[in-house]
């Protein structure tokens, strides 16, 4: 997907078109109304794009995260494309391949749309056979970007992986190579900036990580700068910055009050704060229904910038609820318990269960942990890890919660 297509250019009249009209204009009109009032008046009508690092490709600033039932939501895929959401993200592990199958179902029936889409998939390993299986499911000959999925160690970016990526590029199966990461992102990013053959990355980035960094010591900010300077395209994920509990009602109410006057939802404000960081080309968001798709597109089209007071409100919220959010600095806590425990991963699974309502996936991920880890979960002394945790998370308490929810 080099340039946005003409189908993404919607006239102002279409954009505000009558609800009776079914088509891109009406859809974007709905997106506009999802912001409402004054904010809608400041909206553009074309999905903005940004350069993706030094790849030479421009991508839509909003990406369709495919971790939902894409097989039965073909209309939503079409509507996302019509609304200018041309960066589509999936993984071989999403739904055990079903997410890719759903994207493939769409591409198989709409082959003319393939070139409009910047298609990304991921796998936990650099294996030709698994990439070919992904391409079969996706009903395409190539992906625009292949991510090694969820790396947490810089040595995942080794010479073997480099050689494989080059081979796959030469074979025309991938255009660009990179990785996604949830934890120890700073170390992985620094390595990526250093090796020079990583084209793109997808990372947790949100108003919390902006305020509190990863590890609370500025390492993430430095790593992001290094990666940006090296021309690595960056996509943000987990931009809603949800915590481990289902809600933080009191603190959220204060934030709600701050954004009500602007007609933003908290979710839209969280997106806008990330788009405010030009180092990131795109936000990847799970959008399993039209309500969320329209709201996110509306936020992308709206040109209102967040004020200093808005940023201050987000900062206050991030600080007040820090102990509910795991920042992914697993080098700090994984080794601060006897026999090692994947504390950071377990925290993330609790977050998936409680805040993202991905209960099935959360349980599956938890079940995939070694039995020894699951059995010892609440029998370990976490006091040292708790004393070092920059977020001040009551780790033992959260591990108990994990056992109650996920075991
Ligand atoms: S539990 Fe604390 S120390 Fe461990 S990864 Fe999360 S934020 Fe970092």
Notable traits:
single chain; 407 residues; alpha/beta; TIM Barrel; 20 helices; disordered N terminus; binds iron/sulfur cluster; NADP-dependent oxidoreductase domain-containing protein; oxidoreductase activity; NADP_OxRdtase_dom; TAT_signal_bac_arc
CATH class value of the largest domain: Alpha Beta
How does CATH name the architecture of the largest domain? Alpha-Beta Barrel
Biggest sheet overview: 8 strands, parallel, barrel
Bound molecules: iron/sulfur cluster
Brief characterization of the structure:
The protein is of the alpha/beta class. It has 20 helices and ten strands.
Please explain how this structure is put together.
It is a single chain. By secondary structure, the protein is α/β, with parallel strands linked by helices. It folds into 2 domains: about 5-315, TIM Barrel; about 330-405, no CATH class. Helix content is about 45%, strand content about 10%. The chain has helices spanning about 10-15, 25-35, 35-40, 75-80, 100-110, 130-140, 160-170, 185-195, 205-210, 220-230, 250-260, 265-275, 290-300, 310-320, 330-335, 345-355, 360-365, 370-375, 385-390, 395-405, and strands at about 50, 60, 60-65, 85-90, 120-125, 145-150, 175-180, 200-205, 235, 280-285. The strands form 2 sheets. It has an 8-stranded parallel β-barrel with strand order 3-4-5-6-7-8-9-10, surrounded by 5 helices. A two-stranded antiparallel ribbon has the order 1-2. Helix 5 (about 100-110) links the parallel strand 4 and strand 5 (about 120-125). Helix 16 (about 345-355) crosses helix 20 (about 395-405). It is globular, with a radius of gyration of 21 Å. Mean pLDDT is about 85; it is low at about 1-35 and about 35-40. The protein binds iron/sulfur cluster. Iron/sulfur cluster (SF4) binds near residues 332, 344 and 391.
